[in-house]
Amino acid sequence: MQNRVRASFLLLFLLCSCAGAGTDRSIPELARTVPSDAVCVAFADRADNALALIPDTTDVLLSLDLGEFKDNRAVLSCCYTGKLNSMLAIDAGRSRPDTSKAVLSIIEASRDAGLNALYLPVYDTDGHRAAILLSRSESMLHSASIHLESCASISDAPGFSEAFCSAPDTPLLVLIRAEGMERVLPQGLFGRNIARRTAARFLHSAADWYMIDAGRAPVDYALTYKCSDFDSQFGNMLSALDPEDSKLAQILPRSVDFVLNIQTGSNFRTLYEQWMDANNSKSLYSTQLTLLKRSAGFDPLDWESDLRIREVALVRWNNREVLLARRSRNSKDEGISVNEMSGFIPALYGKIFSIANDQYCANIGQWSVFGSEPDVEAFLAIKENFDDKRWPQKDCRFAIYYNGSLYCWDKKGLRIENIR
User: Of 356, 361, 339, 355, nearest to 292 (Cα)?
Assistant: First the structure.
């Protein structure tokens, strides 16, 4: 379970529901211990629950006995100082280090384990309170102390207050700074299907902050994000995308390994081109479409419009891969033929939909299938389909499936589930 918590804590690949209106919640005083350059912060009602979110499985904090403080409120923060280090700040109430056996015990146990420990006063509206800071990084504790003395903290970071107040009220809330994504995304998150650097760069530009409700049930995790009012942020584009029904589950192979699926309804093209224009990428996009029009003899945009493409997907199974495009209506089934639309899907929907070979195609009902000749043939020969009722089917926007987990963003928001 802890491995799944850490992985989901760090994933966040463009699969979020828009942050709602702000609440009247105030930022906990413990946030004052978090350095302003922290890449992620977790607020927990129980300190022992915060420990489960530490991304580095070698961190000795994970094995520390918190004693009487395990049920106290805590804030876990991560900073990059040559490596990713974690710091746990525990609310010590009005305990004093010179009189409280519990404080002395946890500080001694921490130092015996090779951790650095620091007791600091934290002032709130009720008067004097204290926090115990624990980390293997001495410099992180020093930074926290300086920030506290100068009344500066993560609360002063651009957009943090707005992100926190728009997040759900939950016993375990995680906030991740978009610009720190390359530091926190784990290797092999989606295997070889999506490069870690590609995901990190995308997330950096897609929003400002990402928030995870890690205390949600029965859904494992719920994610939201906070954007600036910029067309250049992909999160704003996805928020405005009209939800559409998906029929992908009916055609997926039962042995599927990886799926990337997006709905391309009535307003997709307008929103996508606005986003490309805002990121100074529309010129290259237009050039690619022009070159494809010359080589194919017809315009990719006309192909999309004439067939009324409703959703596209990249599917991998048993070391094979195909691209799928669903039309609004059934057409006559057609066997394998040379693909005159080679390159259309990645040019129209993004390079992430690229495959090694899309030189052949076939039609099945509403679906066009693109890939190498052996892979298209293998797809057509599939007898057992996925058809899992938990696969998104109504009011969908985007979905990724990998290694048994489904990351689905629909009209209701994002859900992350194990469905295998």
Answer: 339
Is the per-residue pLDDT at 4 higher than 50? no
- Could you please report the per-residue DSSP string of 118-146? EEEEEEETTEEEEEEEEES-HHHHHHHHH
Higher pLDDT, 144 or 4: 144
CA distance linking residue 226 with residue 194, whole number of Å: 23
The CA-based angle 395-399-401, given to 5 degrees, is: 140
Say which DSSP state 60 is in: G
Task: Read off the pLDDT of residues 212-229 as tens digits, 9 standing for 90 and up.
Answer: 777 654 444 445 555 555
Check whether 10 has a pLDDT greater than 50. no
SS3 of residue 220 by DSSP: coil
Half-sphere exposure (Cβ direction) of 80: Cα atoms closer than 13 Å:
11
3-state secondary structure 258-316: EEEEEECCCCHHHHHHHHHHHCCCHHHHHHHHHHHHHHHCCCHHHHHHHHCCCEEEEEE
Residue 14's H or E segment, with its range, is: none
Strand, helix or coil for residue 244: strand
Contact 205, 361 (CB under 8 A): no
- Cis bond before residue 218 (omega within 30° of 0): yes
